[in-house]
Amino acid sequence: MNHSLKSIIVGTAGHIDHGKSTLIEALTGTHPDRLEEEKRRGITIDLGFAFLEEDGLRLGFVDVPGHERFVKNMVAGTSGIDLVLLVIAADEAIKPQTREHFDICRLLQVKRGVIALTKTDLVDCDTADLARLEIEEFIKGSFLEGAPILPVSAKTGVGLVELKRALQNAARASQDKQAERHFRLPVDRSFAVKGFGTVVTGTLISGKVGTGDEVELLPERKLLRVRGVQTGGKAVEQAEAGARTAVNLSGIEHTAIQRGMVLAAPGRFVKTRRIDARLELLKSAPPLKHRARVHLHAGTAETVAEVLLHDKTVLGPSESAFVQLRLAEEIVAVRGDRFIARQFSPVITIGGGVVLDPLARRPSRKDSSRVKFLEVLERGTQEAILRAMVDRSVLGLGMQEIVSRTGWMETEARTAAENVALERVVQIVSSEPLLLIAEPIFQDVLNKVLARVETFHRENPLVPGIAKEQLRAHVGRRVRTETFQAALGELMRQNKLAVQGDVIKKPGTEITLTPEEAQAKEQIERAFAKAGLAVPSAKEVLAKLAIENRRAEKILQILLRDKSLVRVSPELIFHRDALGQLGSLLLSYKKAKGERIGVPAFKELTGITRKYAIPLLEYLDRQRLTRRLGDERVIL
Ligand SMILES: Nc1nc2c(ncn2[C@@H]2O[C@H](COP(=O)(O)OP(=O)(O)OP(=O)(O)O)[C@@H](O)[C@H]2O)c(=O)[nH]1
Ligand SMILES: [Mg+2]
Question: 61 CA to middle of ligand 2, Å?
Fold first, then answer.
């Protein structure tokens, strides 16, 4: 692909029969009407395409139908254009679809345009001048005010050179589309090409797409492989934002893809049925009632939507308001996308607006911060938007959700996250993958964790701390594991908690025993010390104590944890000193009689019965003080 070429999309607009398609043919050599029916009826029904490549500019034309019944096709073609070529026949001047198409361009925020006053060969100078005056009045105060109005005739060729120049100048002044953003291509056609398979076309509204790329078909959420790409009718390695693009896909039938679907960078965009938006009604529109249904057009998609007004029962002409759109079918939308609303019946364009939050929540009276939130989404900086989104995410806000709701690049999201974290209003609980939580929510988790540990200590004075799993379970499922971990980390950094093995405790908490407990502890230890290797059962020892069994058990645990006592087998507990003496006994045996010792010799040496001898020998094996060799042990 020639990268010095600037690609700009030009869409036609204007009333039926005013000469749009004829003009495109006169400019590019290609007649955009393709369908049999179009040729037969002499009108455009669906979108047509043509290209003009000159002087380092590639103009991709999208020719739209003027017929009022096909306005929905016009809207699909117009979303994504950079420049409008408004075609007005000199003999008819401004007609209903001139107005409707012009309104649609305004609502979609097309930035610039050129006006062609066509069929001048059919009128005299006065009529042409009158039409021009009418047009100037018509565009006053709009994005087209001051745009060139060029008299042309496709029949005689008059004015075509000037029109082409004007289009090229406007194209040069147009902003480049954003090639450095996530790939997105709203599909306007899908068909099969012999020998290639499925091909879809559309205006590449952001990012790039190249051969071999993996792309996601939405709302189907199907991953597909790109076999090839064309722009302007030529095969290219990669197409960039701003180009009319054809993508050859493998692994799918062309009939499985329809206008309205979107090809996108995998995992970046979401389908939705609930959008928060600003809706603006046209001056000519009838009042719109709360819960009225409209035809919603976004990208190349079209669906029925119910309009929920936030704090009023009716939206008047020329008014605008925050609304929630409940869609009948899933579409793909991102913050900043423009849309058109058409009356349910009779179908006329009544307004349009901008998507603020494509993953809106069900509106509720309790949600008192919603309007403020939407105001921030509408005008805020990235930092303010991120903060507002985090504030409303009790569970935390992850990278994928940030990207799919805003359309930002990951680097932008990360920078904004770091900035708001510096202001201490948001906590980064995990940076890979990024997870953010509002500071007050994080503080709540910190308090909850700390309080639980304190309570645990109070209720379990004989236990050093709470098991981490138990603490995790206590904070509940409304706290993500990443948040719990970050809270623990933070409390340890603040020296409010300490970790000991898999137990969490307050630093400096020692187990404090009551005098009777201390006495019991001594009694237990003494009982085992006195017994040497011929130990009593733990049950027997504990039964003799003055304190109740449950506390006695805990004290036994303390002794085992301190390693004053050692559990050699499930039934047998020995005092540390007794085991120490056993070690020395074995060493002297080794010196005197050699390194091998059998069970009988071991029993004789220690003076204990088989009941004790076998578990003890197994314990010594585990401790690597002895090693089993047939019936004997080797003293190591
Ligand atoms: N005399 C004259 N006739 C023209 C001119 N431009 C177009 N026409 C004729 O006007 C008729 C309609 O032209 P189209 O180009 O199909 O009009 P359109 O705006 O594309 O119509 P739709 O797509 O159906 O909205 C055709 O018969 C053209 O030959 C012109 O400059 N002079
Ligand atoms: Mg046409």
Answer: 12
